[in-house]
Amino acid sequence: MQCRNLYLVQISSMEDQSVEIVSSWYFLPYTIGLLWSYAKTNPIIAKNYTLKKMFWRPDDEKNIINQIKNPDVIGFSNYLWNTEFHLKIAYYIKKKYPNCLIVFGGPNIPLDPHWLKDRPFIDLIVHQEGEITFSEILLQRIISNDFSRINGISINGNQFLRTPEAKRIEDINDIPSPYLNGLFDEIVAENPHLKFHAVFETNRGCPFKCTFCDWGGYTHQKMKKFDLDKCKTEINWMVNNKIHTLWFADSNTGIFKGRDLEIFNHIKKMRLKHNYPKIIAVTGYSKTPPDKNDTLEIQKIVSDDDSLGIRPRIAVQSFNKEALKNIKRDNLNIYNIADLNKSQTDNSITAEVELIFPLPGTTYESFINDFDYLISHGNIIPQIYCCLLLPRSEMASPAYRKMHGVKTTKMLFNSKGETCEIVTSLNSITEEEVTQSWMLTWVIWTFWYSNLCKKLIQKISLMHDEREIDILVKLQKFIENDDSPISIEYEKSKKNLHKSFLNYNLRDICSTTVSSHLFETNTSKGHLNAEILKKFISAFLNEYFEYTEFISNMIFEDTMFKTTTKKYNPVLTIGNNFSENEYATF
Ligand code: B12
Ligand code: SF4
């Protein structure tokens, strides 16, 4: 009997603004690893199929296509960061091998049947959980190409069909771990120079139903736990295999009180002994009341170890009650600011607060008020995400779009040609206001969180009894009417804003591009160009104080840095790492 050739493709995410993934960092292909680990437990599949190769490393598509020989089935696992690339490979493979069965799955596949109909080279789409369904497909393929009795899939072609929803896997512990069954051993052994990242699932599902989210299709679903022993053994595998970053895939880390803390304590213990993983990254903390979860204790473990370089993240998304209601998060205990503040004073933890902008209900004023709150809390650093419309989220549904006037723009997601859909206006906020708000964050990152003009603005705020945020708004208006190098950089960012997902990362853009521009000229590179800044700030002060030269000069002299050519390191500008003795502060 001839074995059928199976190939699986899940190209790693390479560019991530939040984790600064560099070119030598790669994710092990966990999802396709699970699909095959589960499938090969079936003796018929094991006997009839050979897994020829798993593709995980970003590469030239031709190199990948050339390595695929006589495929019987190819499975592609699709996320925002790899779908367009996968489509290209699938297109060419279908041309070369028309009888090969092309199966697509993963969270980035839209529910709209036209998406599949427009891509005739894809044979099947698996919606939601894939392990059982993929095995059913492989089994059915041996008998015939009639997949119509398999639930949870869409079948392409003349007889286009969407079959009924599949049931979720009863016991997720039936799925063998691709870390523990040796599936990744070769990849790790053959690439000792790479820093691997690993996705770590301790449970599946999320009881909440935030409208912007699609937690692998398991939102508003029962949470199912992987055995604790299996979780600990996976951690040991990651440590022994020098996995650089361990990524929790859990929706609500800390929700299983006792158990989740035990998992983190185990990581901590292993890390102390073996110095791996270097980074523990949590994607979402529990949204249950703080006394019912382990979140604070876990955040402390994650933040205690400075070398991990990770701050606790609090996914607030918005402080606006209307927006929270519209995204179905108004009754969640996302954070307890009192606890957070307490932990900050006790432990000097700097927390990152995640916001999504804009959300239905957000207004220009409410965005400004959110920032008023943020900048008045020194130990909170915002992380502002643009509002991505995830294809299977409630927010992407026609009804929701209609109700909230969701207007979007399709744009580049990364430099590899992947695309995404971003919200650019809503009933509650116009596109102009959205742009204006983003550009206000440009001003805030450049002048406030960089500490460049923080003291100056605080002083003016005290003198004039005006909110710091309102002074920053005035500074923005001033920049817009000015023609200094600062305004030129501002206009550049504004022009490019809605062209690519990466352009919303104004935090990094401001701390690198703008800062290096501001600081590089005049003397040697990396030195503060005091003249540009001085001229700009004094012009702003003059306007602010309505040309009462005496006052503006006085403030300028008082808060102005004394030395003009101190070395400037943009990396240190964000947060509290800043040493005021060493750097210029206005
Ligand atoms: C780890 C993770 C990451 C990692 C990258 C992981 C990687 N492998 O490269 C990091 C931290 C880098 C990351 C970043 C981002 N992520 Co992320 N991330 C996750 C997370 C937490 C886990 C993914 C995972 O491996 N899950 C475990 C697998 C087993 O589950 P699954 O993906 O659902 O797969 C099952 C089914 O979909 C199906 N299936 C999947 N593929 C296939 C293929 C076939 C052939 C078949 C049959 C079935 C099948 O079967 C699988 C097993 O049951 C998910 C949330 C979640 N828990 O799923 C978000 C998630 C994937 N991320 C998401 C988003 C939006 C992002 C960001 C854009 C966030 C942001 N605003 O910056 C960034 C972008 C990164 C970048 N620039 O490239 C969205 C993705 C939506 C989408 N359409 O792709 C998710 C779903 C979270 C959400 N908010 O809804 N992410
Ligand atoms: S954002 Fe978090 S809490 Fe909300 S549905 Fe998604 S995973 Fe669940």
Secondary structure elements and their pairing?
Elements: E1 4-9, E2 25-27, H1 30-39, H2 43-48, E3 49-55, H3 61-67, E4 73-77, H4 83-96, E5 101-105, H5 113-117, E6 124-126, H6 131-143, E7 153-155, E8 161-162, H7 185-190, E9 195-200, E10 203-204, E11 224-225, H8 228-240, E12 245-248, H9 259-274, E13 279-281, H10 295-304, E14 313-317, H11 321-326, H12 337-347, E15 351-357, H13 364-375, E16 380-386, H14 398-404, E17 407-412, E18 419-425, H15 431-449, H16 454-464, H17 468-481, H18 485-496, H19 506-520, H20 530-544, H21 549-559
Parallel strand pairs: 1-3, 1-4, 2-9, 4-5, 5-6, 9-12, 12-13, 14-15, 15-16
Antiparallel strand pairs: 6-7, 7-8, 10-11, 17-18
The structure holds cobalamin and iron/sulfur cluster.
